[in-house]
Amino acid sequence: MLKDTIIFNEQPSSANETSEFKTMFLPEGPQFPIVVEDIQHTHSAAQWVENNAELIDVYLKQHGAILLRGFDVKDENDFREVANTFIPNLAKYMEGATPRTNLGKGAYTSTEFPPELSIAQHNELSYIKQWPMRITFSCLIPAQEQGATPIADVRKVYELIDDSVKAKFAEHGWMLVRNYGNGLGPTWQKAFNTDDIEEVKKYCQQADVELEIISEEQIRTRQVRPAIHKHVHTGEAVWFNHAAFWHPSSLCPLIRKELVSQFGEDALTYNTLYGNGDIIPDDVVEHINEAYKQATVTFLWQKGDVLLMDNMLVSHGRDPFKGDRRVVVSMGEPVEL
Questions:
Q1: Which of 90, 180, 182, 241 has the most CB atoms less than 10 A away?
Q2: Helical H segments across 88-215, by residue range
Q3: Domain boundaries, given as residue ranges, for the chain
Q4: CB 37: neighbour CB atoms within 10 A?
Q5: Whether the predicted pLDDT of 12 surpasses 70
């Protein structure tokens, strides 16, 4: 069941409903994502993206996410055509933190975590100095049960967070501490796409990342980033960070207790702090996660769906699922801090 949307005056004429395309919202999300449906189920998604660049810019600034539904997207090659059109300047997955397969030509599998686990809301690569402005997903095989990619408007997340919480993050920013090579996360070779530690040193210097070499296989990095940004194109305040995502409180309490007792907080694979090194209290992270929860929209994938998103306006996650599921992703149009 879908409900029609009002056509806004500032939108190009291609926004009008025709015998070929219909513009609407899902019941689950009355404000976003905006949905463009191919009524005939025969059109190329890449061609639609190419023909509607101006409209896409309008929709992204207003809604943050566009769901293309019913288009002729059957496989990875069809997705690559869409991705290359939507994101002319595709990016490498640098400082990667989750397991995924590089499918070539800028396409990757979505995070390959066990299906019974959920993935919390986050904006892709918010912790690096040069993050992707645009990101796109496509569902080639929907899960048998669940398997949604929930999304949240981080303008709303920002509004929902208490002023006192925002003030401290605005003053200090947030710090990410990562440990590579401890057997619990990606190796530095995988994360930095190189086997040469000298290349890692060079990258870290350019990216304002503090590098500590512990051994041949183990390194530790620290980086401080703003928690609140002004959107590059709209100037709106956005909650753009991984401070809650990688906070120790996100771990199962028993696992957290065991890891901290064995390795200490500083040796956790991921840890987040205020930018001045102070600990972020668990209740602050709980409050931030509640803001994400209130702002989140969840809808089930359909085969061939393509989700076009502004990575600075919209975060994403993953619900647990059963059965086969194949969702692919590309990102790019880098923006530098």
A1: 241
A2: 154-160, 163-172, 188-192, 197-206
A3: 3-113+133-144+299-336, 156-292
A4: 18
A5: no
Q: How would residue 281 be classed by pLDDT, with cut points 50, 70 and 90?
A: very high
How far apart are alpha carbons 34 and 226 in whole angstroms? Answer: 29
What do you get for the CA distance between the two ends of the chain, in Å? Answer: 41
Query: Which CATH number applies to 156-292: 3.40.50.880, 3.60.130.10, 3.40.50.10800, 3.30.450.30?
Result: 3.60.130.10
Q: How many CB atoms lie within 10 A of CB 333?
A: 18
Contacts for 198-202: CB closer than 8 Å, 24+ residues apart: none
- Rounded-to-integer distance, Cα 266 and Cα 312, Å: 29
CATH number of the domain at 3-113+133-144+299-336, please?
3.60.130.10
156-292 has the same fold as 3-113+133-144+299-336: yes
User: What is the arithmetic mean of pLDDT over 304-323?
Assistant: 97
> For position 260, what pLDDT does the model report?
73
pLDDT digits (tens, 9 = 90+) for 86-102: 999 988 777 877 778 88
